[in-house]
Design a protein that fits this description.
Elements (H helix, E strand, L loop, with lengths): L1 E6 L2 E6 L14 H11 L4 H8 L3 H8 L7 H9 L4 H6 L15 H14 L10 H15 L6 H15 L2
Antiparallel strand pairs: 1-2
Helix pairs in contact: 2-3, 6-7, 6-8
Amino acid sequence: MTRPVQKNGENVRKCEHDSEPMAEVKPRPFGERLREERLRIGLTQTEMAEIGGVKRTTQHIYETDIRTPDLTYLMRVRDAGADLRYLVLGSREGPQGADFLTLSRGALSNMYRLVDEVCVDAGGRLLSLEARLRVFQLLCATVKGQDASASSLEAMREEFARFTGM
């Protein structure tokens, strides 16, 4: 159904549904998310309650949204494998998150080889594990959000060679 509306001094037709507020998408209640996480990690209510440091009845109360747990409980269930972001915010942590880097086995293997090639002293001996770890972390930060193909790693190898004078 349409109705006339004044816009800039002219009559225009506007659909009724255009003026209705947009429907809100509500996240699932905390209790449902908690139950879903408990089942996802394969625990009974009793087991989850023990991990969280509460009784089974309290676990049930949390899952039915009568009460919400405290931070200590949440940290304990997080340590057991529950997705804390999902429990609190209603959205899952994804591979695009700040702490994730997805690499193929080949790319990871190439990165390890590259670290072992460039992390040597003047006598050809490997540098300390700590030094190699820092270089590996630098490589991970460099390839994050980019492709980690053999060609891009070859380009990094060349950069390292120029940088180290090898």
